[in-house]
Fold these 4 entries.
Entry 1:
Amino acid sequence: MKRKKWLASLGITSILAASILTGCSGSEETSKDEGSKDGSKKVEVSLAGWGGNPTEEKLLKQTLSDFEAKHPNIDVKLEIITEQYMDVMKTRLIGGKGPDVFYLDAFEAPGLIETGVIEPLDEYVKKDFDVEDFEKPLLESFQVDGKTYGFPKDYSTLALFYNKKMLQDAGVEVPKTWDEFREAAKKLTKDKVYGYGVAPELARMFWLAQSKGGDVVKDGKANFATKEVEEAIKPIIDMHNVDKSAVEPKEVGVTWGGEIFGQQKAAMVIEGNWAIPYLKDTFPDVDYGTAEIPAVGDKKSTMAYTVAYVMNAASEKKEAAWELLSYLTGKEGMETWTSKGYALPTRKSVAEKLGYDKDELRGPLVAGAPYATVWAEGSNLPIIVNNFNNQFMSAFLGKTPLDKALKEAQKQANSEIESK
């Protein structure tokens, strides 16, 4: 029943489109042979994902080349989907033309897993795969009812990025608590520079919203119109409207936190690993440091964003698909993929081997992985996010009281969920 509901939600247009899209899958191959051990026969396994920067694409191709060298009976057909990745994937999976292995973001995982199109992987796992090596919160985001549907290939948490010179000039220590952070932002706000460049959206504030004991999502429905959630996120509103120490990047003519920080229009931002290579390439003269996100009370919190490799349940080449998936998420493949620091390895042993746990900039990001809240909270999260963000922005800009905005957003979100 759930699968039928999901198919219907994509609409007739998507179903018709499935018949003309040219995705790769096991069902399209003329041979179902998994390949002989002596390499005399080959099987082609299709792999789909979205694009990255040139260095990431080179790393992926190198990893796949290494895999093929070690598995001469398997060829990998890589497809990069540059636009509307999930829409394309869902349409192809409906039409039976999905790839054998593909990327799946934790945010999208619950909804796709419940349709039955993702293969459970537990029966394929052997002891030498070392499941315990994965950071637990990241792995759990792809587990449902005791089954594992994907193994995370990389991730990023959030950390505090701070401008060393600005803090030094203002006589401000790196804040370790949220109260210290707010006071530091006040002192750092001067001469058209803001203390905090904030991203006022749930994807970046989920950890903060739940820091006072509230639940943003409960029993699959929006639950953020509570005193606990309101109290937790109200400081963001007050920093913008009362202290005047926080600003959204767009308010100063830039697009995101890395840019406002790089242009030195904000002394502090809370960003992920992706900001490190960006700052190195775009603003190499900015002297900055990173730290774990300031604790709310005595509790450390952060977000984690992760992507897994998953297997198409309809694949006709499951054994070969597992060989590929397990190599890509195994220690050797993951080390190659994450070797340049564009992505962080989800395996603790790989992070240690590459030195990221001790790295001056990436260390705080790695330190947050064991206690991170993963950006994945059930199949209704997309609906909840859209409604929260719309109303929260109204409160952030001072147009609507926060309590009223949260109540309106929750009401609308749950109405949409009930009508699914």
Entry 2:
Amino acid sequence: MAKPTIILATSNGIGMGHLARATAIAKAMQEFATPVIVSVAGGIAEIPSATGFQCEYIPGKTRGWMPRGKWDTYFRDRLVAIAQETGASVIAFDGVVPYPGFIASKLMDPQLQLVWIRRGMWQKNLLRFVLPFQSQLVDQVIEPGDFARGYDFGPTAGRNEAILTAPVSLFEKDKALSRDDARKVLGLDINRPAVLVQLGTGDSDVNQKMHAALSGLTGWKDLQVVLTKDPVDKNGASWAPDGLDIRVVRHFPLAHVLRAFDASVCATGYNGVHELLPAQVPTVFVSNIRGTDDQEARAQWCHDMGFALRADQSDLSNITATVRKLQDSQIRARLHQQCEHLPDPVGGQEIAKILYELVSKTKMSRQGPVNRLKRLLLWSVLRRAALIYRTINPHNVDDLVNREAPIWGSQNTAEDLHPLIKGSMRFEHLITGASENYIRRRKEIAQSAYGTPGPS
């Protein structure tokens, strides 16, 4: 009997949190189901060659590749098309907001089962007011657990419609590489100390935090500092302090090689916490206060419970001083030992089973005539609310867009995908082995969105 296909869709985000969770769930289900990952996040370029999963990149609204009024329909049509191509009956969407196009896919195909994977630990922003509507528009809400859930007092904490699971993580104790093997993979000296720093770059305040954190590592004898991005500003000028041996490494998933590091400095995002702490890497968390994720609450929990150190993200001198504590071997040993008491983050396995059970259910979709009308009305309210929210909090939209016919391809390596995803040319990505019917349908979708023909 052929394994069923389950689509794991994700929104964009500040980091790789949505994609990391989707990848962890996909890995957990591959024995009994075939995962297909689709995402508007550019980080999806890393996944196909690293995992072997079928993936498709969908350009997000902020790319500006089509009129904004057409994007929700475009996203809906892309989801329905790939569900029909792969025979999937379940689409799980991991994102803070279930896009109107995701919700509308059930209006197009009532047999689809829609699942919203909704992380907790929200800050109290305007999005909390549409939570009651969003939750009614999907067939199931799943909340991936959070080590710091005891400090969650945000708008999702008091709701009861979600199935709560254990935390989700790509780190697996029995599969992660040993210290020496991981260092060989990363090209690091086996005998010198090594620290991983993941704070992001770009905006001036983020660069300042990175500089402050790196300054706390100066003076650590023979240290190797590993970054995932070049420490340069938008003009190409380096803001890293002198005297550090800095290497830039691209490796996915980093969870497999975390034992290479003696310590880390990281933003307090979901996947950072749920990978570094189970790997028992002594860590200083420097929160990113943008977006919906309440990283400060998560960082405070990690600090209060003794699993990590929290730096004050608003105080550059405190960041430097807190990071400098990692040079103390006794502090590192204490943090390492405390992390042994954390439960295993097996939420990926739990969610994979929930999604498989949805596929296996034989009951008909709940969408009768009345339910369809209710769904349509709520969808209209949600879409209008999203437009209002983005008017108040607009995205930064890419400025340079080449209006020529899009490039089409089924590339599946990071080296090939990154330039296409980041480029100014519109790019239509196809899963490997796409059928002629699927390509024909994708041409129609592209024609409607761009006003240009698909591939010849």
Entry 3:
Amino acid sequence: MRGGMKTTLAGLALLLAAGPMGAQDYPVEPPKADQAPPPPIGLALPEDYLAPPVDLVTPLAILDRLVVPGTRMQLEWRPGGGISAAEIPSPVVVTRGALSGPVLCLVAGVHGDEINGVEIVRQLSHGIDPTRLSGTVIGVPIVNVHGYSRGTRYLPDRRDLNRYFPGSRSGSIASRIANAFFQDIVSHCDMLVDFHTGSFERSNLPQVRADLTRPDVLEFSRHFGNTVVLHSPGNKGMLRVAATAVGVPAVTFEAGAPARLEPEEIAQAVAAIERLMVQTGMREDPTAADDATAEIDPEVVARRPDPAPIFLDSRWVRANSGGLLISEVTLGQRVQSGQRLGRVIDPVANVERYILAPVPGRVIGMALNQAVLPGYAAFHLGTETSEQQAVQEAVTPQDGEGPEPDPESRPSELAEPSDREDYE
């Protein structure tokens, strides 16, 4: 019995001695800090093992509807108070991205006869894939349904809607419509582009007009690819001026002439906005896959947009006599001082008088061939400069900052554009 007990005790001692070594699941040498094993399954992971948090995208509440992430919805906007009860509603296309990002508002048709912008916003609003969008695009192709349905720039009372933002609830019809649009749409925007064309039978080279004295607007204006940027402080009552004043960086995008659809100008504007969305992180760059071969593929290099030229100083060249205007230059053309821009023919006296460029520059706006009176603004010339010089000149007070807004008792169409800026 004692012998068996001794054997059992000896075996137990051996098991106890070997136990720790058999249960050990790591080397005798403790691991170094940079070679730590992964934590056991089922235990909470340290921060180093956690994936970065993903921003939760919630539905957007707008115009009494909810637009869920990854979808597009077409809504209707009507100013309150029965202002437009007898008119067709203004369409509002909301594309809510599946990923988080800023809210970009694209607005057109503030002037009812400027239909290039209507088509630009329509194409962009319905051409964006919401499942691959970071942020939201709110497209309003026709703000002034009154003017659009009648083919005119103005509201029924002949007021210019783009002189009454942000508006008021108790003012004229223009003020009330402007106020309702500001509260219902602009209040949702993080940045805004307002599309226009030349006015009164004039055409504009595709261009961005921005107040470069505002740092947020200056930064915003850098994202439109190789589109021309013109410093323009704007006038009181303009949509972009009112939006910027409440912290929404806004610019005006001019493209073409009123009362007609111009495919080339429309395509340039659409490309500029697509570039804007890439630059602001709302969309992936479709040319990103070409970056690896960009250094050896000349076609890829050729597709890259050049830095945006900025036209700080601009002036209108006016006709000094009445008659029939015939242009001899085209939009975007560079001209020298003294070069002939066009001629005015007096059909009664059979006399031709030439319009000459007073300074070198580039034609960024021009009147279409038509009958003109003395003093008619015929050609808009812009002088190219660097961004640094543009900002420096923009913050320097200058004479003639543009016309004061017209009083409510006088139709806006009676006002004459200044030498520094035409109508927006």
Entry 4:
Amino acid sequence: MSTAFSPIPRVHLRTSLSPPHPSPRHFPFARIRASLQESGPSIAVVGVTGAVGQEFLRVLSDRDFPYRSIKMLASKRSAGRSISFQDKDYLIEELTGDSFDGVDVALFSAGGSISKAFGPVAASKGVMVVDNSSAFRMDDGVPLVIPEVNPEALEGLKVGKGKGAIIANPNCSTIICLMAATPLHRHATVKRMVVSTYQAASGAGAAAMEELELQTREVLEGKPPTCNIFKEQYAFNLFSHNAPVLPNGYNEEEMKMVKETRKIWNDSNVKVTATCIRVPVMRAHAESVNLQFQNPLDEDKAKEILKNAPGVVVIDDRAANHFPTPLEVSNKDDVAVGRIRRDVSQDGNYGLDIFVCGDQIRKGAALNAVQIAEMLL
């Protein structure tokens, strides 16, 4: 299998017969971390065997996150298996109500039902819970945070104060969109935003990524595609996002973008509409974003603003027709922005169109959660 299309992030699960992960280049800060562990927090990773759970570990390693201990938590089905992280073997433990004793920070990515059952339990024990599910995002009193966008939402929350809390990670599409839209919003104030997403298999987890790869082989071999994760054929096709459709005709994914944008921007009046589509891309989402501003903003100034925005890289070469692609941002931290142009349907410089790509597993999930955890230290 070509590594360019490997459906699963680096997984270090193994049985007792499997050798440890052999490559030290994935863990370049192991010696530095060893000296920091005593003063660092105790961490728990909930859902460690999933695609985002595995990415949590990669991001913790890549960013030299200090910790004194780490718990690997998953379902009863995975308990007892061994996992290798930073050249050390850990036993995966079954998630229970007692799992959070002595834990300072818990990174959750095990689904909404697990978060609802165990997130409050952990917080009641003084744990700072960073939850990747949608379980608490719209709850009053639960911060919904993109560190580059609304860090003020974490004011007063710190590890070691003896009081736990739940902090919500926004939806991946919202994160990727607002990383690019927010710097422009700060300058010219967005009145209305129209978003069309082109979402990768990674958004539905490792099993969906595997199914896309399997279907691709099957279709090329003239076989009927296996459709276990999605009702539709995914390979060589695209379809409306698989989230449930609501009475207003929008699906849940689309309404997440509407509601979450308003909460993160603390602006209940901003008009947002979205159409979310699944496309046969393995990893990293793309989004076409149309912005209408209260104040004028020309494309040159917009490009300058975006070039100076943290966590954003501009790829906008009109002469070469080179703009962001999902492959270019896969496994990357930054969100890429291009196709920056004036909206010709509006008079003056009151509208822009941009095209955004970001790694759904990385910035759209694990990286954003770890950045939140860093701010809590």
